[in-house]
Specification:
The complex is a heterodimer.
Chain A lengths: L1 E8 L13 E6 L14 H30 L22 E6 L9 E8 L2 E8 L4 H18 L13 H11 L10 H14 L3
Helix pairs in contact in A: 2-3
Chain B lengths: L3 H12 L2 H16 L5 H16 L8 H12 L5 H13 L16 H11 L8 H14 L11 H11 L6 H16 L49 H20 L9 H12 L14 H19 L7 H24 L4 H15 L9 H11 L8 H15 L3 H13 L1 H4 L3 H6 L1 H10 L1 H15 L5 H9 L1 H14 L18 H4 L3 H10 L12 H6 L7 H24 L2 H14 L9 H19 L3 H4 L1 H9 L2 H5 L1 H14 L10 H20 L11 H17 L4 H16 L9 H18 L2 H8 L8 H5 L5 H18 L3
Classes of the chains: A alpha+beta, B mainly alpha.
């Protein structure tokens, strides 16, 4: 199962760029059990911890993506689209996976699968022994749907005020963090349903 | 995309003040309270979501606002957009104490799903998970034929099972198991009807939908699965997909004994007895209790998936799904066999057939990993030799697919997770370290920490030397792999090598036979037991040393070396320790020239050399000849200062009779001469671009070593004292062209003076510089008669007094 899904910025670490990695959207599907902690913990503290865990993952993904791009010899500009008409070849987008040890930052050990498209990072935080092939194809699917339905290719749009559509897509394609074995026809069917319910 | 506009929007959302936020909240309340909330309400909620999620600190929202959000969420006639936004906002604020949401009065499974998405992230302080689970089962039990769709329910149940499996009663699990059997095995094999409204021109008799098809277009031959396709789908076909998606988790967490089923004794007994009974058919399965029936149907489902994966899919997405289904099928079969060993016999035969089919298929190599794991877990019980499978996996897959980051990660994850299961097959893993290193060399950033955990299992006394060479040559391996990719015919449409470096000059040169032999050795798949000196390759591959991938690998090597040494010192005996020490010295000037690589490796090697000496102090005496050679070589100071300092330090510490009786006076004398000559040369020579100046630390260590040696053979004291005073004089004369800064010269002077002082009182010098083994005991330092600081203070005072009394 998926513990969290997030979208964050992917910047190229150029000399003059001193911005921070920003989490643009995150959705956690279940809470970690903090029953072992004897200290009385407030709800606020738990929320703060959760946000910081997500940010820690985003930062790690950013550096992994940058390292992978660098190692393949691609410049950071490759993450920007050439023109808004060109379809983004998602199967060529950098994708990777790494493990998070227990306690760092989540209580249980988890696996992270990430995909870098158009200076955005899409990340799934999974349980430790998930079916990675399924997770990868789900991630690619989510990225494609979000790019299409949020029209992320046109320069003026951003996804900060489009949480409703992101939620709509997630409810159908990753309900409660459940990875689904959807063949092409099922995906088309779900997508038609979504387009009908949410006209562009 | 993240434009400057978006950055400022985020900034605004963060900076909004409480008062303004409260005003905005009241506006939201007004908009939501309208009968028909329009697009304004949606817009306002989107902004509210941004404000709440933009900061990691809690935002204070008025109670009326949050209450209204909860109500809107639960009202069935509200449009989906608003409901989703309310749920998202409430979820973003979680965990939150003021939540009065509950799932007791939900009417539909869709509503339950929304409410659950908020409740399940509260952290289970008020047993929300249990109540959501109970509610879900209530809806499940009360299902009417034309009732609400259960499609929204299964993911909730799956989540609850994952978070809190103990909250479900046995009759509830039985109920769901029965339903899952229906959905998995008996879903309709006819395609669904299109859910379009009639329209003006539609005919009243719609065309009958045909049967579902397989992924290659043929008509379906057996029951419906996730690999069955059609134009439209029926409700139970949707449930089939969801049921399979949650099947593994359900099987694991809902079994009566819990995830870790039977304990070891029971298990082996059962396996032994049931294997003698060929339970090949599933007769009378409808008489089985629900759990067992579910397992039986799950088994049939997996078999069907494996059969369906032999078909050639028409679409790429379906081909990818076939791979994922194969992996899942093997994982489910593994769970089934763990829970009920009677499945083992049937599973083994079909998995062996599957493995044979996949062996030559590079595109499906990742499926081999769960198969190998299955055979490792169950092979022993079934008396099946998993060696051949492992051999194929370790010798073929990394060679062909090291460049795939996800395969590399999965492969290493497989190795790490299966370590307890390897048993007698562990030496296949150990022998295959060259292939595993290929995965590491190509994908070092995500895999370094994995290998640090894996190395202790790979290290073996027999291959330790070869492994150390391999680790030191890891960046060279990265370059060689890049070269190999360029030279091999293009298997994929995209270049897999570093595209920023076009046509390196070594490409042609590498075809030379002398290099070919060395390259073959470097790129070997298994430990060969021999060691080759790869210095010519370092030269050849120099143009590639600036590749980003090579540099990344080089950065990872010091960490790996530390892990290697902490592992190897556990298994190394005296002979191996000596060999390793010699290897360190030899390789320290024979490294692939990547920026800063040599300096970093020297740091690690020099500290590890000392660690080896501490482990086996006789090393210094046994390897005296080689160490003498090292000290005597002129290059050692300038290019390997750190190594030289360690060697000198080790000599100073351990070259004495108290550590090894075989230490002779002649050895001491020879070292003394060598060190003197070295120091002299270093301090006399002028620094130039080719010979950088010798760091003062190295000089200090050399001088200290000389003093230590002298303190042991006291007839050498006058000679060493003379030398030290010469050193002091040299350091005092700081001319503008002198090699040393004032601080460095001062440090050298101070150290020389201290050493000279010590040598004036030989017995004290011996005590300080060559303490007996008792110095490790605390008593040695607490006892007023033997404490070292006291002795030193006494000596200093005495010497000062003496100096004061004597003229000049």
């Amino acid at each position: 199962m998926v513990h969290a899904f997030l979208i964050h910025t992917l910047r190229a670490p150029q000399a003059q760029d001193t911005g921070l990695c920003r989490v643009l959207y995150s959705c956690v599907f279940g809470a970690e059990n903090s029953a072992d902690d004897p200290r009385p913990h407030g709800a606020e503290r738990d929320r703060l911890l959760r946000k910081e865990q997500i940010l820690a993952v985003a930062r790690q993904v950013e550096s992994m993506c940058w390292l992978q791009q660098q190692a393949s010899g691609r410049t950071p500009l490759d993450l920007q689209p050439q023109s808004s008409d060109e379809p983004v070849p998602l199967h060529e987008a950098p994708l990777g996976a790494f493990r998070l040890a227990a306690g760092d930052p989540f209580q249980e050990p988890r696996t992270v699968v990430w995909l870098g498209v158009l200076s955005l990072g899409f990340v799934l935080v999974l349980d430790a022994h998930e079916n990675l092939l399924l997770a990868e194809s789900t991630l690619r699917l989510l990225a494609r749907l979000l790019l299409d339905h949020l029209r992320l290719l046109t320069p003026s749009t951003n996804l900060l005020l489009r949480a409703d559509r992101i939620e709509g897509i997630l409810t159908r394609f990753l309900p409660h963090g459940q990875l689904l074995f959807l063949n092409d026809q099922f995906v088309q069917g779900l997508e038609k349903e979504f387009s009908a319910a949410w006209p562009r | 995309m993240f434009t400057a506009g978006a950055e400022s929007l985020l900034h605004q959302a963060r900076e909004i003040q409480d008062e303004e936020l409260q005003k905005f909240c009241s506006r939201v309340v007004k908009l939501l309270q309208k009968d028909e909330p329009g697009p304004d309400a949606v817009d306002a909620l989107q902004r509210l979501f941004l404000i709440v999620s933009a900061t990691k600190y809690k935002r204070k929202l008025e109670k009326t606002c949050t209450d209204l959000l909860q109500t809107t969420l639960c009202s069935p006639k509200c449009p989906e957009q608003l409901q989703l936004l309310c749920a998202a906002i409430l979820r973003e604020r979680s965990p939150s104490d003021g939540l009065s949401l509950s799932c007791d009065h939900v009417q539909s499974s869709q509503q339950l799903s929304l409410v659950a998405s908020v409740l399940l992230v509260q952290g289970d302080r008020k047993e929300e998970v249990r109540s959501v689970g109970q509610c879900a089962f209530r809806v499940l039990e009360s299902r009417q034929p034309e009732g609400p769709s259960l499609r929204h329910l299964l993911p909730v149940v799956s989540k609850v099972t994952r978070l809190a499996p103990h909250t479900l009663h046995e009759d509830q699990t039985n109920l769901l198991s029965k339903r899952l059997v229906d959905w998995l095995r008996y879903a309709s094999v006819q395609q669904g009807v299109a859910h379009t409204s009639g329209g003006f021109f539609s005919t009243p008799r719609a065309r009958q939908p045909g049967p579902v098809t397989e992924v290659d277009g043929a008509v379906a031959t057996d029951f419906f699965t996730v690999l069955s396709t059609g134009q439209h789908f029926t409700e139970d076909q949707w449930l089939n997909v969801q049921a399979f998606s949650m099947l593994r988790a359900w099987l694991l967490h809902s079994s009566p004994q819990g995830p870790s089923a039977l304990d070891a004794d029971d298990k082996s007994e059962l396996e032994g007895s049931t294997l003698s009974v060929l339970s090949a058919t599933s007769t009378a399965s409808h008489l089985l209790p629900p759990q067992e029936r579910l397992r039986e149907k799950a088994f049939e489902y997996c078999q069907r998936l494996m059969e369906q994966s032999t078909r050639r899919a028409l679409r790429k997405g379906d081909a990818d799904l076939q791979k994922a289904c194969l992996v899942e099928a093997v994982l489910v079969l593994d769970v089934l066999c763990r829970q009920d060993p009677s499945f083992l016999y049937r599973t083994l035969s079909c998995l062996k057939a599957l493995h044979a089919r996949l062996c030559g298929d590079v595109a499906r190599a990742r499926v081999l990993l769960p198969i190998a794991r299955f055979f490792l877990s169950h092979g022993e019980a079934a008396a099946v030799d998993s060696e051949a499978i492992l051999q194929h996996l370790f010798s073929r897959v990394p060679c062909e697919l090291f460049h795939s980051p996800t395969l590399a990660f999965e492969f290493v994850r497989f190795c790490r997770d299966s370590l307890p299961l390897f048993g007698g097959n562990l030496d296949i893993l150990k022998r295959s370290f060259p292939n595993l290193f290929k995965l590491l060399a190509w994908n070092s950033p995500p895999l370094t920490s994995e290998f640090v955990a894996l190395l202790p299992w790979l290290v073996d006394a027999g291959t330790a030397m070869e492994m150390l060479h391999a680790l030191l040559d890891l960046p060279c391996l990265t370059a060689a792999l890049d070269l190999q990719l360029r030279l091999s015919p293009a298997a994929s449409d995209r270049p897999l090598w570093d595209t920023s470096l076009k046509n390196p000059s070594c490409l042609e040169a590498s075809r030379d036979p002398q290099f070919q032999a060395l390259l073959q050795h470097l790129l070997r798949a298994q430990a060969s037991g021999t060691v080759e000196r790869l210095a010519p390759l370092h030269q050849l591959l120099r143009p590639m040393a600036s590749c980003a991938r090579v540099v990344q690998c080089a950065e990872a090597v010091p960490t790996l070396l530390q892990a290697f040494f902490s592992a190897v010192t556990q298994v190394a005996d005296g002979t191996l320790t000596n060999q390793l020490a010699l290897l360190l010295l030899e390789r320290s000037d024979s490294l692939y020239q990547v920026a800063e690589y040599e300096a970093r490796v020297h740091r690690v090697l020099s500290s590890q050399f000392l660690a080896l000496c501490a482990l086996h102090p006789s090393l210094v005496v046994e390897l005296a000849r080689e160490l003498l050679e090292f000290v005597g070589s002129a290059s050692s100071v300038h290019s390997r200062g750190a190594m030289l300092a360690s060697v000198a330090w080790a000599v100073g510490e351990y070259l004495s009779v108290s550590w090894d009786r075989r230490c002779t006076v002649g050895q001491t004398n020879r070292f003394l001469e060598a060190l003197e000559a070295l120091l002299f040369e270093v301090t006399q020579s002028r620094p130039s671009a080719a010979l950088p100046k010798c760091p003062p630390q190295v000089i200090a260590v050399l001088m200290t070593t000389l003093t230590k040696l002298a303190s042991r053979s006291q007839d050498l004291i006058p000679r060493v004292s003379l030398f030290l005073s010469k050193m002091r004089t040299l350091a005092q004369s700081t001319s503008p062209s002198s090699a040393y800064h004032e601080e460095d010269a001062g440090a050298v002077r101070t150290r020389a003076t201290e050493l000279l002082t010590l040598l004036k009182m030989p017995s004290v010098a011996q005590f300080v510089l060559t303490p007996s083994a008792e110095v490790a005991e605390p008593r040695y330092h607490r006892d007023a008669n033997t404490a070292l600081p006291l002795a030193l203070r006494t000596v200093s005072r005495l010497v000062e007094k003496e100096a004061g009394l004597l003229p000049g």
